[in-house]
Records
---
Amino acid sequence: MVKISVLQHAPSTHLPARPGDPTPVQRNLDPLLHPFSRARERTRALNATKMERMFAKPFIASLEGHVDAVEVMARKPDSVTDVASASWDGEIILHNLATRTRLAKIPGAHKGKISGLCFSGQTRMLSCGVDHNIKMWDIRPSGDDSMGAGPSEPKPLYVYPGKSVFKSAPVSNLTFPTSTETITAVRFNAAEPSVLASIGTDRTFALYDIRTGKAERRLIMQMRNNSLSWSPTFPTSVLLASEDHNLVLSTLFTADARFVLSGSDDGNIRIWKANASEKLGIITARERAAIEYRDSLKERWKMDAQIGKVQRSRHIPKPVYKAGQLKHTMLEAQRVKEERRRKHTRAGENKPKAERKKVVIAEQT
């Protein structure tokens, strides 16, 4: 009788564990067998950086409807897509970001500029303006393109005159010791409800703690800030709208922090991606793993000269490119001048200032 020996391999070593999983690949991780692994990794990082710049298109859409500058915006708390905006002509519009349509409109809500807007619950909205009135609106959908009492003229539910609403004595008085500014906007941090941020007319950005009842920190910026918004997913990040190039009056993060809304004096609300090269739509598990791998490569090789050059490049329209080129020439001349001053004067004893800190003139605690 002939004896037969059969070689048997476990299916788990060469077949997927579940339907749809990738086929297992056997690799030897010995670095002696892969002398060009670092060169391959750098090439992958360079290709990942080029792909990021290739797909970097942050602008998504523009929401129209206002005829004057957009002063404030507010996000509906129970919805991811509904956002309200108010302009200088006293008009309030409720937008839907998903369909990019106008849900409702309140013309002439206030006499003059609307300076504040917020939601109270799911069906109430509060607005205040330079006419010294606070008005409450019913935002439940109706058959026509208006909100309030009827189809002819939208009317507020309540009107509170400014001097009769507030108490005679404040519950808490938060101020900076040497501050004489006019506060233009305040925002509470969603993760730390006791932390309050404010901006003023003297180009300051201040942080307060209502538990201690005093200001913790204040930054004096180069440009005046018109609006601020805390990031919903990153509590330590704050978005400031300033007057550095164009007049941006209001900014707002969406509920998932993937998009940024900006309102300016041209009457448009523009939707931008927070990550310029992020893909919109459904992402599979394998695609997400590939994106995370490319991000780790870019972070690891960001100090490489060629990769850094590609990462700093921007594809923009020619007028914007020419304006940026002119500003780059001016900044380069200023940098050379500061470098020479640092070499030949006593000011060279100090370290050069980081780019992110150059917009901050002074920090006070």
---
Amino acid sequence: MSVLLALTVLAAAAVSERPIHAPGPEARLAGTLLDAGEGSPVVLIVPGSGPTDRDGNNPLGVTAASYRLLAKGLARKGISSVRIDKRGMFGSKAAIADANKATIADYATDVHNWIKSVRSETAAGCIWIAGHSEGALVALTAAQRPDDICGVITVAGPGRKLGAVMRNQLKSNPANAPILDAALSALDTLEEGKTVDATTLPAPLQPMFNAAVQPFLIDILARDPANLAASLRVPLLVIQGDNDIQVGVDDAKLLAAAQPAARLAIVRGANHLLKVPAGTDRLANLASYGDPSLPIAPEVVEEIAKFVKH
């Protein structure tokens, strides 16, 4: 028993957490390295949309800490990880004056800067990229240039172009009828790579098509996740919970079908934040967004560990 205890202590002691940085456009980017020990594989965790921090939390009511919990789970499997703050936000706030001006292409550039810094810090030969939600699109975009990327892991990532998703959402709500034509017309214009005068739109649409976010929208609307997956030259793992009320299993199937060599893992009961809520209703699902004590689904860690350590 004492020998086993000693081995456990030694294993725990090998894991350490420290700050890590990468070059940014105006100032450095900030993140956290959870080091599982010399020679361990390294996963870079790319955050989802909006003001989501390196731990997977945001000031809009999400405190589930999913990325931090994922990092700890991977460390227990002997896998290091780096979780990051996006340019213009949190620890990376000084990297760009206006976070609204960042595009998917910008975030993909940052991924490559992170790869260089992480390889220098850890001596890893290549880095695994795990993107969550919108971060999955960033990961797929970055991996079109596969330099020093071991493989890509998409977690709750979209499988369709954003324009198709937005059109479906707008049309599915009868309350949008008075503004539907204007919204669809604005989407058409942005998809052509042109800007829209948001002040001419109905008031409910003006925040969605605000001038400040139009460069981002033009960039993301042009990207097709399935096409990006199809052109990958590195291994791909697609993870999707079947209790996700933001991204569906069909999206995951589209991604996996686009890349014949991809591995698809559907995690039973897991929601968008990788957790299995206490109940099956929408309220229980949303309640888990604010519960950092609820663990992430162990299958998520298991699937990533199997993929990385193949």
---
Amino acid sequence: MNPLPYGGVFGGGGLFGIGFAMGVLEGLKPRGIDLSEVPLLGTSAGSWAAAATAFDVPFSVLAEMRVPSFPNPKPGLLASIAHEIFGEKTDPLIHVMACALPRLKRTILDGGKFPLSDLVAASSAVPALLSPHTIDGTRYIDGGVRSGTSVDYGPDVENLVLIAPLAGAMWGPFARLIDKGMHKEVAQWKERTGGKVLIFTPHSAAASIARNPKHLFDKARAIEAYHLGRAEADTYDLTFT
């Protein structure tokens, strides 16, 4: 069977990552790349972007969601917030990456089998900030613990849009480490699928608004990241390589 023409992989990055990814995605639509009905894999913040894209939930809605104080050990907290946006919706085109306890095994969760509100909660359960989320008897934590994007597990498509909010100009040596792992995973994905990739990472303007980890969870900075992500998509060279 021939691969689908488009797919997406969206990485983690807190509220900042949600804003940046949604800005890129909403900026790509007028340029002819609409990822609302294609296979998507999201990790942490990217799982929110994937679910929102699948159900045409604009960033303006995500920007109004409740943001808990951190750390917050209350079980089910993220799931309840996600449920306010996504309800009990499922979608077999959406998958998320989470880490299964106790061995932190990277695990792909299927949006056709479980509500996206549960998947988003599992993929975004940041250790030490939020409680693990249980699905079908297994406890999960943030998929970004093992990989910023897990693009090596990306869907089998001809052209893959990869959004990595913690790579590029972010945080010096940390971003270089993320970049190195991401490009290794991209090479593995290309070898497996034969596909091409278009990579979005924050340019210096976007990176400058999140200079430390606390900034990733600031709603005002997330809104700014959305506008900068959209501006990046407006002018980006859309050549897949």
---
Amino acid sequence: MKIAVVGAGISGLASAYYLAKHHDVTVFEASNYLGGHTDTHSVEVAGKALNVDTGFIVFNEQNYPNFSQLLTELGVESQPTAMSFSVSNAKSGLEYNATDLNKLFCQRRNLFNPRFYRMLWDLVRFYREAPSLLEENDDGLTLGQYLTINNYSDIFINDHLIPMACALWSGPSLSVVDFPAHYFIRFMHNHHMLSLTNRPQWRVVKGGSKSYVDALVRQTDAEFITGSPVHRIERHLQGVTLTVHGEKRHFDKVIIAAHADQALRMLDQPSETEVAVLGSIDFQENEMHLHTDISLLPKNSQAWASWNVRVGPELQQQCTVSYHMNTLQSLTTSEQLIVSLNSARLIDPKKVLVHRHYAHPIYNQSTLNSQRRWHEVTDLQHTFYCGAYWGWGFHEDGVNSALRVIQAIEQTQQGVANVA
């Protein structure tokens, strides 16, 4: 079959890689590079060229089995990284790094701070009690409601749990409390984040995440076309027609590996089901800067961590996240390389190396409901949808989504297409 793949993020790339073994696959990417959130930049710092990741950065073999298998097939190496987490509150001045006791109490005054101990107590209590919610399967309860009902302290909520969630999902602090509690706790439980010990070894792709993109493109017969946004997708009985740069291209099937809102804009005549399912998944744009301004890290260097969250002076302000790339990628330079999200007003413009925008899904009950309806839009008029947003939004979810679409395509070759 002739199959078009729209979007060259992890889902589109994985779809193309596996399908091209048996089909004629063409990948259309709107931007001028392949990879989507896999975005590696070669920057010169102190006379040395370094490859720095600014989108997808870390994974672990335990929770990313299919992505890890893909790396193995491609012959791409990875290396262990140190994962640590810090919080810096711009209003209260609180700073801590959760790596060890010395860094946890890097501000020695917290040794005598009852509120700080309450945060630690609630942290242990949350780890102990939260998994019991998984047995109840109550999707209607939000994270904010769960925390209120169980009398968790403000310092635990605002100076630990919300910053942690903001770092994980690159989302604003206010949206985090609207997460379905069951969904949030399931993720943390599956990733062994509700335990103080036995956590998985996190890894980074050696030489930068783009290494796997380059290897994949070399090892597949799929055709990749960048700088080519798909303006329209028309469906008919015999297949689909894509309009790209004013030219019409005909295919038997199309896999839309772009975000749900982008997919809807491409469809010439979306069905009511597609409008309902795809239109209920929202995305937030996040502004990324790769820079060398250490003022975005905690004031106390003992608190510097792999992931550093700054809590704004006002509760309604979103948390900002800064990733310390020297630590994460083991970069050998005296200059501190930092990836910060939504922090433009805080960064010295003279120290900015790269500026990008990424979009991330917003996880609420509406998104969760749409995820459960994926089968309703599968092979709907020869059209398939995949992307990490159908799962938790991470690289493994992107690969899983691609594998699910591939399985659906194989099944439709043997059965009847979905025409609902």
